[in-house]
Prior knowledge:
Layout: E1 2-8, H1 11-25, E2 31-33, E3 40-48, H2 54-67, E4 71-81, E5 89-96, H3 98-114, E6 127-133, H4 139-148, E7 155-158, E8 160-169, E9 172-182
Antiparallel strand pairs: 1-3, 1-8, 2-6, 4-5, 4-7, 5-6, 8-9
Helix pairs in contact: 2-3
Amino acid sequence: MRTFIAIEIPAPVKTALAQLQAELRQTGADVGWTNPENIHLTLRFLGEVEEARLTELKRLCGEIAAECPSFTLRLKDTGYFPNAKQPRVLWAGLAGEVSLAQELQQRLEAGLTALGFAPEDKRFKPHLTIGRVKSGKNLRQLVAKLEMYSLPELSFAVGEIVLLKSDLHPAGARYTPLVKAALRNRPAD
C-alpha cells in the first residue's frame, strides 16, 4: 500500500489555502489543484509498503513522536519549485518553530533508514503543496498572482504525526490514517 508520514493541518488553515487556490484559479493556468481537505505537511513519503511492515512503521512513529516536543507553525509566504520560469509545484510556506519540524523529520529519516528504507534524496523544506502545474498556459499571470498574494498569518499547534495510506482515485487521492502518534507535551511557560 502507498503510505506517507505527515502532519495534518487544521480546518482554518485549509480554508485560507482554498481561498488562495480560488484566487490563483482566476489566472486560467493549467494546474492540478490539491483538494484542500488533503493538504498536509509531508514529513516522509514512503511509497509502496508491504502490509507486513506496518507494525514496525507504527512502532517507529510512536517512539519518535514520544521523543519530540509539540510545536507551533504558522502560514507564511507562497512560492513554487523549482523556479519562476518553470514552476512545477505551488506551495504555501511555513514559519514558526520550523527547526522542531526539521528535527522531527530528521529523526524519522534516521529511523526509517535503520529499518531499511532508502534515504530521502531531497532536503526537507517544510511547505504545503497547493497545486501542480500541468502546462505553460498563463504561467506569467499565475506566478505574478502567487508572488503578490498575502496569506493570513494563521498559527497552529502540532501535537501529533500521522502514518497515512493513500488510495489513488480518478477524483483524487483519498487518505486514511493508519496510526496517529502524539508528540511529547512541553511544559507550560
